[in-house]
Amino acid sequence: MNNLLQENINNISKQLSEDLKNILKWKWDSRFETVLSEFPVGSKENILNLLNKSLTTAYDQSSIKKAPVLVKDIDEAFGGLAKGQLLFTSDPNQDILIFCAWWPWGNGINISVRFSPFSTKLSDSQNKETMDKFRALFGV
Asked: For the chain, which residues make up each domain, given as ranges?
């Protein structure tokens, strides 16, 4: 991966962690290998505004069908988007991106967000290094 792309991913990760650090509490989700947080629906607009600063592309159940292959790979790894679920990404036309899976709960009270870098082009050691840096930024 080129240094400029890695720097961009690091900057997006830092921006997200800084913007959300006093709003959300993070934990590690080993099932999906993401950082995870839940928040009440009343915080939805505030969180969406912060997300849109860094993750400028959003997909829903309908638009995911026209997404780039890398984004479809993420969708598949999560079992597909259901009604009301969203997938936010940094530039989807790069070899690596940052994504956020936005999952409203069935009870209508809470929303879960899961963040992670994602690439199919990195070596295992590059993936580990990228994920270790990402987790450190979110304190998990």
From this structure: 3-138
